[in-house]
Records
---
Amino acid sequence: KQMCAANTGDITISRHDKFSGRIVILFGSASCTGEQLLKDCGERYRDIDQNCLLIAVSMGAEPAGSAQLGKTIAAAINAWGEAEAKNGPPGTAGGAGRPELLIHLFGGAGFTAWAKVLKLWMEQYHYPDEKRLTGRMLPLDKILKGVVLDSAPGALGRWGTKAATERKRCQRLSLSLVSLSLDIVAERKRG
């Protein structure tokens, strides 16, 4: 495991010697640490797939936040690349597990992180950073298996100014995510 504290610009990774090809990225709220995400949520994914790679991100303030997301994408792509280099391509005898990605978001910070990852992933897919990425940049529409929105921001029944502003912000982010997702699908159909 790599250890980090919230808002340092680092990510926390939990892996086992064997890698199934499944990666779960946990995007936490601003008040948690990567270790808390792994303990409170990540180990539940271990019950489903003990050989998945868990990446926990507690978003820092900019510019650290964008750096964390870059490290997160690189950790995922490089894990798939290393597995393929070691075991052969997915689908071959003894080959690497088929790449799969599951995203688990917590609150507004997690939702914001996911919106940024969608944009960064598409940029890296078209113009991969070959110095940092040791694996192939895979299209999200081929590997993304699900997105879990947990602990949605805002409290029902409390429509104060802060809650209403947060709700509107999340609605705008949601529309942005849908738009980016549609762009990914359209790009796949064109190419």
Note: The beta strands are 12-14, 22-28, 53-58, 100-106, 144-150.
---
Amino acid sequence: QCMWFITLSTVLLTLLWYSIVGIELYHVKGDTGTYLAAGRTIFSGTIDELRTPVYPILCQIFTLGKYFNGMYLLSAFQMVVFFVSVPYLYKTIALLTKRKTVKCVFTCLYAWDLPILNYTAFIFTESLTISSVVFFAYMLISIILGKASRSICIAMPLFLLFMIMLRPFCICFVPLGLIAYAYAYHKKALRHT
């Protein structure tokens, strides 16, 4: 299967890339300190007005462990989320086309993009945001095409809320979600008339 080959090769490419570049170089960057500080304060009951809560909470949870470096664990978590998003991109494209070449090429463009691979090691929201957009696109297109299960229809607004709490920019996806629901409802109403 092309999808599993791409996913496995992405894991291997990531390991090779990080062994060449050196993963230690990428853990702490500009905004990292503010996420860590916001994570420490959020569990004491104080909300940082400059940061949405999801990523600081993740930073705090992953840095609680005393046996491992929390930044490595957070980077590993981001990598796993990215690896899981690769087959979902393939499935999203499969909803739109039956051409195997198109599915494989577009999935490879996403999965083997070195800047995206670099983001999986950075301690900022971009990595999870990029992967989240892939999951959201899968849910959105499934709903529009009428191929979504009830669980996807229920999960999409909750996932969209998660995305907004991860990165406020994601609020721009709300109209897309509303349009998808309206279209699916209209399509279903037309079938029953």
Note: The CA atoms of residues 119 and 127 lie 5 Å apart.
---
Amino acid sequence: TKDDFGLLTIAINFIGFFLPSVGFGAHHGLIRFGAMQKGTNQDKLVSYSLISGFKNQVILSIVVIVSGIALNFEKPVVCAFVLVMVFRLFGIFFLEMAKAELRAKFQNDRFAKLEITSNFLALVLGVGFTLLWGVWGYVVSLCVFPYCVFLLHRFRFKKVHIPLLLKKIFWNFSVQSVVTLIIYMWVFLLDVF
């Protein structure tokens, strides 16, 4: 119903605030510094950003869950939407990491295929699941579509060691990128309202 989708909009806006900070910006750092690395150094940076970004994503998800519960939305269904959509944040993290790796390695054709496929899948799942199960179908489609990346991209989870100076520079850039995006969102939202 119209009311259900209105309540979902509240949850989507809440989750949308956290979208720029998935993995605390590990994908931004990977694009920036991964393109400057070659061979095994590049592979090490990819693995490091994936593992560290995943750890940061777990922390971010806990913050989202605690914030969602603390806000105590008027309707319990909004809180349920938020809790289910935390699963989406992990999928977006993996999708963004795959895109960043492909861009850092200058594999633009694979990047384009991944982008087009994931967007097409989002459309098909969104329409199909909504027709089948209504608002909860739409929520499930939002949560499921980013995981198509596991069908199209192979992640390598290997613990690696990179120099401390590179770690500091990497996270300094990554976190500043996230803060910049969040400030941009605030300015845009203030302009809208």
Note: The helical segments are 2-18, 26-34, 39-71, 76-104, 108-144, 149-152, 164-192.
